[in-house]
Amino acid sequence: MARQRVEFRCDECGGAAPRWAGQCPVCGAWNALHEVAIAAPSIAPIHQLTPATPLADVDMAQWKARPTGIDELDRVLSGGLVPGSVTLLGGEPGVGKSTLLTQVAAQMAHRGAKVLYVSAEESSQQVRLRAERLDAIAPPLWLASETALPHLIAHLDAVRPDVVIVDSIQSVHDPELGSAPGSVVQVRECAHRLVRQAKGRGVAVVLVGHVTKDGGLAGPRVLEHVVDTVLSFEGDHHHALRLVRALKHRFGSTNEVGVFEMADHGLVPVPDASALFLADRRPGVPGSTVAPAIDGHRPLLVEVQALTIKSTLPMPRRSAQGLDGGRLAFLLAVLERRTNVGIGGHDVFALAVGGARVVEPGADLALALAVASSAADVALPDDLVACAEVGLGGELRQVGQTSRRLSEAARLGFRRVLLPPSAPEPPAGLTAWRAATLQSAIALAGLEP
Ligand code: TYD
Ligand code: MG
User: Fold this and answer.
1) Counting atoms of ligand 1 from 1, which one is nearest the CA of 167?
2) What is the C-alpha to C-alpha distance for residues 160 and 192, in angstroms, rounded to an integer?
3) Is the N-terminal amide bond of 42 cis, ω within 30° of 0?
4) What is the pTM of this model?
């Protein structure tokens, strides 16, 4: 009989080494290598082979997405959760992953799916308390408080769910693997095994993954390759706004964004995000403009504010919140050199209001005008939006999807738009003010010092 082959695996990074060493050759961690047996891959005997089929005859009935019942999420998922697929929902601790998935579980259960919620972090009582707050106690919703993977799989046998939610994958472990719970090896192997369960049983699996501050999935990025769909759940703790977007999606596009607001009784869908961002806008204040930005495919009107103030520091301060700091520095340089707005020796604070994040060049002109408006202490017209990219020469350029942006602006009652000469005609109700350079846009907007 052949001797079983072994290799050494690192607990920290999952890297393999042919022989033991004190230090992992991949990540350099000390004392992290453990011996593991290499299982010979097993395949079905040749007489059980599934014959190849013409592409058009492949049965698609099983792969029809099942709506989650939460429209903002279904749009991101191109319809819903596909049976046999695995979806990873990543987000920082506290952003609302458990809340969203409890609501998904309840909605799907109401629509006749059998849902199993596996809580590996919280006790059943904690989960029930949350579910009560969310009004989510539906009869076909099953709950297991479990961290061991073999037990979790036994629950799948017992409950036979259509959908299983594992909260979180970092807390699930398989004692067989030896390495510590939460280690990369554990997380990756457990995810692999759950993927096999999903495909084998045709059950839709949703995994929760914690993301660290720097945006990486705590532990393994490798999870992203294993699953079919990666959703990212974003939002900051000081604002109620939450965004769900698909980073990877095998069953549809990754361009949609779902918008929610965290309320007392869970996440409330926000179909009209622009109205939310503009709700508290005060007219007539210098330093404020509105940028018709695009997030994915979705137009989003965001108020951009700037405040300039004579600096007492040798190096004036520049601060950008919800905006790209590099872009702000670039625009200030262009303003200084290509226009007669003088902001040298001034501190500049710039902000996208309401917890929005606008980092695309489509907001350049709006941001530059906000700075110019604050410097001149003259307010821009309330019904004006500005939509252009600014070049190093101070020239204005058309940005992608201008028509969609302008339709959204018209829908929300804006009447005037500052555009570069090449941009398409705006829709009815919006009058175009065309400017070829930043300087002429500033003059048109009445901000010349
Ligand atoms: P949670 O879903 O536990 O976050 P995660 O699973 O991503 O770690 O939710 C965290 C926050 O949401 C928590 O601070 C409380 C708040 N919250 C509400 O504001 N309203 C609610 O209805 C619920 C359930 C939570
Ligand atoms: Mg949670």
Assistant:
1) 6
2) 20
3) no
4) 0.77
